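Hey team,

Filing this mostly as a record. A colleague (T.K.) asked me to run one chain through the structure pipeline before their review meeting, and I want the input and output archived in the tracker in case anyone asks later how it was produced. No errors, nothing strange. Just documentation.

Input sequence:
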Amino acid sequence: MALIPNPKESRKQINAWAAKATRNLITQVFINPEDDDNDDTVHVIANNAIYFKGEWRNPFKKENTVDREFHRLDGSSVEVPFLQSWSYQCIACHSGFKVLKLPYELMNESNWKLYDSLPRFSMCVFLLDGKKGLRDIMEKIASSLPAFLHDHLPKEYVPIGQFRLPKFKLSFEREIQDDLIHLGLELPFDKKKANMGDLLHEEDTRRMRVNRVIHKAVIEMNEEGSEAAAVTVESDDDMGYSMFDDYPPPPKPVNFVADHPFAFFIIQETSGAVVFAGHVLDPSEEV
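Output structure:
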């Protein structure tokens, strides 16, 4: 956390700090400079930044990426690039929706002494069978995190029929002071009770409060991975099923075609923590 005085002169410094911390994914925190240039602003606090970049355990082949239609909530459609795969994928089928889990490559995977202690990250995609109902399932997930999310994650790999997942890059910016107040954090924003003096220079005795809290996030997903551990079974050989009744029939292939709005989560599987969360309504727009 950095406390930067002279707010009118600090914008470039804060934006440079954000760009460095996020590897240039976020290069500008203040969109409307005139909103911050007022006589009441005394200090600007650059609080924290998080950066995540993961490569898929099994990257998608760029030559298989194909343009197909994505259906928006309003009934219109747009043509966007879709990742494709014909290998086994980790998918769970539930009533009304499917869940896909794409594991990221482990760091230092060759060091077997550290293997069990390495954090495991995955992107999980919640895809409704129909084109409506995303808001309902998002509310259900949010109201019971992390239980609902983890109770519905897939645990095994299944053969694939059709598999298409759109590439996307999303950005989000919002003033979140009202959300924090709604969650119970009221004191820093109270004009009469707030006193942020502990953050200020000793000679500055003015009584101050927090006026604005800005949150910005960016995530990009493509063939190599995403910039926000299980083993994939992939083989073109015979799967070893007998022509007789000695073995059960092969599992039925599962289709996972994300051609309509879906929710996604990047999770740390060891702790169950949700690192990033969002939903894709239109992968053709960076919104």
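Quick notes for T.K.: Helices lie at 7-21, 33-36, 134-143, 147-151, 177-182. The longest helix spans residues 7-21.
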